[in-house]
Amino acid sequence: MIRYLLIFNLFFITKTTFSQVTISIDPTKDVKTISPNIYGRNNNIPKESYASLLTAAQLLQLQDAGVKFMREGGGNNSTKYNWKKRLSSHPDWYNNVYSQSWDNVAQYINSNFPSSVTGMWTFQLIGKAASNNTNNFNDWGYNSSQWWSGTQQNLAGGGTPNTSGGNTATVNGNPNLYLQNWTADSTTDILPYWFNTLGIPQSRATYWNMDNEPEIWHGTHDDIVNSSLGAETYMQSYFAVAKKARSKFPAIKLVGRVPANEWQWFNWMNTITGSDGNKYPWLKFFIKRCAEEQQATGVRLLDVLDIHFYPGESAATDVVQLHRVFFDRDYVYPGANGVKTVNGGWDPSQTKEYIFGRINDWLTQYFGANYGIKLGLTEIDVNNNNPSVVATWYASTMGEFMKNDVEIFAPWSWKTGMWETLHLFSRYNQTLSVQGLSTDETNISAYPSVNAAKNTMTVVLVNRSTTLTKSTTLNFSNFTVPNGTANVLRLSSLSSSETFVSHSQNALQSSTTAFLNNSTTISLPPLSITSFTFQGQTGTVPVESINSQAKRIKVLPNPTTGLIEIKGVDSFENIRIYDATGRLMLGFLNKNENQFDVSELPKGVYEVVIQAKNTVSTAKLVKM
Questions:
Q1: Do residues 484 and 519 touch, judged by C-beta distance below 8 A?
Q2: Residue 559, preceding bond cis, omega within 30 degrees?
């Protein structure tokens, strides 16, 4: 009686002190497979052929964080990459040519990461590639290779610098001295070289970017594209490379259009795209032309529609809402700009971006239902360095991408707080995203996921409020959770210095939450990410039935040195044993006997989860 009085008092204090939120979770609704490739990063491994690869600590960090997708093309440096000579022209450093070896990186990934990890590389569409490094601008002799405002002047190939700075050289270099012609066959012949000659598995290079940010080539690659390139001219180059790649290795995934930022989502080379007497947002035109060409030729030309995004907002309250730019049709985005041209003119009333929602609408319009083209975001940076703000934004974005079937996600910049968040999502989430509805979606979101059997659930809760602790109650429909406790892992008040070293050395804070009558209430600190995993049963089995059966099940002896026996159940579907962090350590399936050997477990305290018919039971186990 005293125990229930205490719970009541604590609940009363919570109600009066904290803001209350209710989460409704139903694993039978909005079920979507979570793509492991949303757990991605850019530029993980050095590409210079003369450089060492990764230190042991860097490799462990990547492995233990659970990175599943590696975009290794190198951004703007990929547009003039010559895979035959392992050279690339650097557009942001005088167009000088430097050594790069994608071969080394692909082979390194294959040797050092699980088979589930894949990379993304780039096909060149601009028509030129680096040919030699003997015509570089002597930046060392000029100013000891220091950065100055003139680093984007076109000086490779014999140019004369403008000492006043800026992007325009006094005399531009001759690109023919350091570049060569690069055809559709030239760029796609990397596929047979890698997959046949080098023996790199196709699963290690599934995704291929169709070049990088062509909408701004007249700025980034103005040594070649020094005037506006027509949208249709670009499309023909895209089609030529896509068809060649598809004919050589049909199973690869073509990733395109990769516009540079919000303005370029809607405008091609700073202009509205015209066709057939109509004006189109650039991405709508791109989708329309891909659909038309695909229908005419029967060749699949696009697998993932990919964009980049560099928002300018810096206030914490704005940054933690940036996940809403992609799918939220009601969110008034402060940075909305290009979207004002969505109808062919300048319409200041257009303030709701929902760019991925628009893209899905356009894909349906031109490709029809069940088009099978997924979405991707392979570059993004946010203008805030507070680790808790960064972690909260990153968690919210991954959560929304889980819910909405995004296939690939790889931020460009990597800031403190992101390793910790990636690890929490990649290492602890289940494989299927399910419905989680919040009464305060602006501040509190739930991102629940379940395993294939739908008897294990992980719930990630994100509190975006910068000041308020939120008392949050979770209620479950069509999922029955036995009374008991679950281990809680939390990221909150992160340090300004990097804290993630490995799976066992990080900033995760551990606690527990109690389930009573298929519900639990938990307090969420400001700017925090909270995750907990627990067992249950999909369906409507009465809680009382599960708990009464569970009470009869015991694990003996306890403590143990090796053998344990399960008492109180004749048969079961599986037994799983978890450590204190929620990591699965041992599992036993469909056994008729009740005795099991756990001698391989290190000494410590574990949770034993027994799944039987209509019963999910948990028990603590001490291994001596």
A1: no
A2: yes
Give the predicted TM-score (pTM) of the model. 0.85
- Rounded Cα distance, 379 and 462, in Å: 23
**What pLDDT, on a 0 to 100 scale, did the predictor assign at position 595?**
82
Q: How far apart are CA 216 and CA 260, in angstroms?
A: 7
DSSP 393: H
Find the helix packing angle between 387-403 and 418-428, rounded to 10°.
30
For the chain, the farthest-separated pair of C-alpha atoms sits apart, in whole angstroms, at 87
Token pair in block for residue 277: 């007497």
Angle at 241 between CA 240 and CA 243, to 5 degrees: 70
Q: How many Å apart are CA 387 and CA 444, to the nearest integer?
A: 18
Q: Identity (one letter) of the amino acid at 59? A: L
Q: Is the separation of the CB atoms in 135 and 177 below 8 Å?
A: yes
pLDDT digits (tens, 9 = 90+) for 193-205: 999 999 999 999 9
538 SS3 class: strand
8, containing H or E segment: helix 2-17
Rounded to an integer, what distance in angstroms lies between the CA atom of residue 535 and that of residue 622?
20
Q: Which amino acid is at 282?
A: W
Q: Using omega within 30 degrees of 0 as the cis cutoff, is the peptide bond preceding 583 cis?
A: no
CA distance 225 to 235: 15
